[in-house]
Amino acid sequence: MNFDRIQEKLEILADAAKYDVSCSSSGGSRKNKGGLGNSQASGICHTYTEDGRCVSLLKILLTNHCIFDCAYCVSRKTNDVKRAAFTVEEVVELTINFYRRNYIEGLFLSSGIFKDSDTTMERLVRVAKKLRLEHNFNGYIHLKSIPGASDELMKEAGLYADRLSINIEIPTEQGLKLLAPDKSHSEMIKPMSLVKNELILYKEEKKIFRKVPKFAPAGQSTQMIVGATNETDLKIIKVADHFYQNFNLKRVYYSGYVPVLEDSRLPSIHSQVPMQRENRLYQADWLMRFYGFEANEIVEPSNPFLDLEIDPKLAWALRNRERFPVNINMAPKEMILRVPGIGTKSTGKILMARKFQKLTLENLKKMGVAVNRAKYFVSFEGTNVFNRFIDEQNFRNIILSGTKSKYQNPFSQQLTLF
Ligand code: SF4
């Protein structure tokens, strides 16, 4: 190995990979059966590159050569950047070396498109196959699926990778056509569909046969770029919801558009998507997956952007004040989950504990509930009535100020005791 040359490739190809945020290792669980390493369902996500965005995975591109010309991408064919390509053997050797030194827990491998989709996908699969079969590598492997790759290669990829992902990139077909004319959503959805069906098939076979090979045990994920086109937050979370419902996705990642190129189709290079928007989208995503919220409830069609000042659960509660206060000792699980400051774990604890005693705010505090927030939305006797004379803006100020006594309490007097 020429180490200087490898070092140079590593710098180029790790830097080019940093824009992809869909690299969480959550969900992987591969036991060490006498080989090298293991991966745990730990959900940790450090980064190999320097921008602080990701993982303790070695996160690289196989190449940044690309025949496509996606406007938002530094590796697009018309961009004048230094190009490089690893060989399959180089990626395998780097992964093993880094793993042995404890630098990484696995590999996140993506790629520009060399010549055509299959040529590129075949090389990605070959890396994973060599690691598993020749080096008995049990660390985590996340492979990017190349749009347009054949079914056979996708099926093979699933046998060696823990997670497969294909990036939808732009939430709407119209936006995609504008910025990535070589791509189409149907080409991306095809491999996603195949992976979903294979996952079901392997699961069914496992019920019948004792020994069934693993197929992408950490499932599949996708990424959407936020802010490169003008989709609303409502549109984005509806698209995410569609993918969760129809393709059994483990995760949708939201990547705030980072302007790197001047292009009339893109927002100005000087503009930046607020990190808070990305953050709010993740919170909205969480509400859909774990709290029973519908996309239309989180963001209303009449105002289709998420509130950047407060989180979407609190925003929903303020818009729906007639649904509060929630009686902690009597309300159904669905409503307790909707109380700002009460998470899924605390909800479980509340449901369990209230079988044995009448709960108080002090009890909630001990359970880990964020009572500073929750106290405005709960009652314990079922007699508290929301004060309809306080409008949403005042209520919002009260909660944000976090003061305890120098304001008119939005609920009944009973709650002023806390
Ligand atoms: S196909 Fe991928 S690597 Fe190539 S230009 Fe588009 S986003 Fe970039």
Structural features, described:
By secondary structure, this protein is of the alpha/beta class. It folds into 2 domains: 3-273, TIM Barrel (Alpha-Beta Barrel); 312-401, no CATH class. It is built from 16 helices and 8 strands. It has helices spanning 3-17, 88-100, 117-135, 151-160, 173-179, 185-208, 233-247, 275-290, 295-298, 312-319, 333-336, 344-353, 361-366, 371-374, 392-401, 413-416; strands at residues 57-61, 106-110, 140-144, 163-165, 220-226, 251-256, 326-327, 378-379. The strands form 2 sheets. The protein has a 6-stranded parallel sheet with strand order 1-2-3-4-5-6. The protein has a two-stranded parallel ribbon with strand order 7-8. Helix 2 crosses helix 3, helix 4 (151-160) packs across helix 6 and helix 7 packs across helix 8 (275-290). The N and C termini lie far apart (67 Å). The model is unreliable at 38-45, 47-54 and 403-418 (pLDDT under 50). Iron/sulfur cluster is lined by residues 66, 68, 70, 73, 75-76, 112-113, 180.
Brief summary:
With 418 residues, this protein is α/β, with parallel strands linked by helices.
Strand fraction equals 5-15%
SSE order, one letter for each helix or strand: HEHEHEHEHHEHEHHHEHHHHEHH
Q: Based on DSSP secondary structure assignment, what is the total number of beta strands?
A: 8
CATH level 3 topology of the largest domain: TIM Barrel
- Low-pLDDT runs of 5+ residues are 38-45, 47-54, 403-418
Strand pairing plus helix content: what structural class? Answer: alpha/beta
Cofactors and ligands: iron/sulfur cluster
